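QUALITY CONTROL LOG
STEP: pairwise intake check
CHECKER ROLE: data steward
CRITERIA: each record must contain a sequence immediately followed by its structure tokens, with no blank fields

ENTRY 1 OF 2
RESULT FIELD BELOW
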Amino acid sequence: MNKLMITLLTLVCSNVFANCDISPAARFQSDSQQVVHDLKHRLSWVNCVVGLSLNECVTPTLNRINVSGFSAIETAAATSIAGYDDWRLPNVKELHALFEDECTASQRNSVFVFPSNLNRVWSGTTGASGASAGLLLLNVDNLQIQSWDLESAGAAVMLVRDMNSQGIKE
């Protein structure tokens, strides 16, 4: 019985780790200008949660993130970081891909500066919220997508841009 349990545990554990990349460090490339390149998805991210005072990161110990959907859209349109002014709110698929991969979670957390209370992030994807359309949020704790109207507050702003025009080498 013990041999059977050990064999089953070994198979389960090897299956979990077999799904991970052999070298997860190859996914993210950080530069010195607040930008992290996700080579797997060909995206560049601002390496932090962006505050409403443009071009600045919120502090990692921020007690409350209270950004409305309108403010998130305005922040994305007006931010210029690392010489780029084409930052945008990520769509829900991009956010999900950033937070879902447990194999690269430790590396992701070492190159991004997230506030300790980060739990919801605004996306640029819209959806129905009752009778009106609203932005979708990603809950980073459980990867659930939530619909909030543009006037609601309580989510963080992360910014992304496509890498295709940057000439980043893999």
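ENTRY 2 OF 2
RESULT FIELD BELOW
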Amino acid sequence: TKIMDVIMKFLKLKKLGILGTIIFFSIASFLNNPLFSNASVSQSVLGVAKGGTNANNVESAQKNLGRTDIISFDSTDNQFPSSKAVYDYIDISLDNKFVAVGTGGNIAYSNGGISWQEPTQVGSINWRSAIWGAGKFVVLGGAGNFTYSATGEPGSWSEIGTIGNSFACGSENGTCKLSYINGRFYAGGQVGKIAYSDDGISWNVVNTGQTKSFLSPVTYGNGKYVIAGGTYGYDGIIGYSSDGLTWTNISIPDSNFFAGLAFGNGVFTLLGAAGGVYSSDGVVWNNINITTGQQWRNIIYKDNRFLAVSESSYLTSSSDGINYETPYKVFTQGWWNIIASEKKYILVGIGGYISYAKNSNILDWQTPIKLGNQAWYGIAQQQ
């Protein structure tokens, strides 16, 4: 195979020694396995095999991602990674497909969530949110239009025009978000409107009678559907429903707008521009204990904890959804969204930046890559 030809050429140019040769052929056997037929993963592992001063450090080896000159034949450094380093690197690289969506029609694709292809433009709309469901990626735009793809790869997207009934997401100080719950897609919109779809292609709109925008994703728990939002400078709004179709709205005074909502540990936890609230039934809400002064943009529940991100670069976590840890800063980028896969957490934000941390160490975020200049508002993973 091509990989074996490269290895043989390398062996002729290098005096690797018995141990080095064994390790190199071990890596080659991995790559020839159908499991590693994906080119980006193969190149990444060969990038580890290239060696270097910190070759046994998986994180430093990841800097070789996406390179085509994966083996340098004139190098004088014959170091190889340990078997654990190779295993760890392969483990976090082999993940499902991801898409990131943002301003200017930009959508980016990744097989694994570490190495990303250059963004492609799908229309000219500002894409606000993405979700996986019913065998496809579905993306919501600010004008109330959608696009979808079965793979997320460039050239695979089909655009849907505006869905009518004046449904739009707009340019609020937050991003209207998609969700996929109990076999149905949901999208929050402006002036109290919610859209729903069984296939992500044909949509219906529910008008709740509110004048504020729904910015959070629709979330489900304890037999209730819940969504929230508001308008900058005004009281927040929360909607709840027993069937996801007929909604009741309540106002939360002095709360500003809400953009992040998640359910876990038996409670809904809701964050926004002026703190947050929690509820067990979606109807009665109480203040949570969290540091104020942050523009919280999104929150998820994974591995028995809530994790929230802010536009001012901070993250915070909670085990119960009521009491939150002191926020800590993750570089200087403004983060708009976070997603959790089985192997890693991924952050996307302003200025085209993306970072990730392994599930085993949420504090160890990798130096952000810059993927274009747009703001990444949404990210989704194939399930």
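INTAKE CHECK: passed for both entries
DESCRIPTIVE NOTE, ENTRY 2: The first helix runs from residue 2 to 13.
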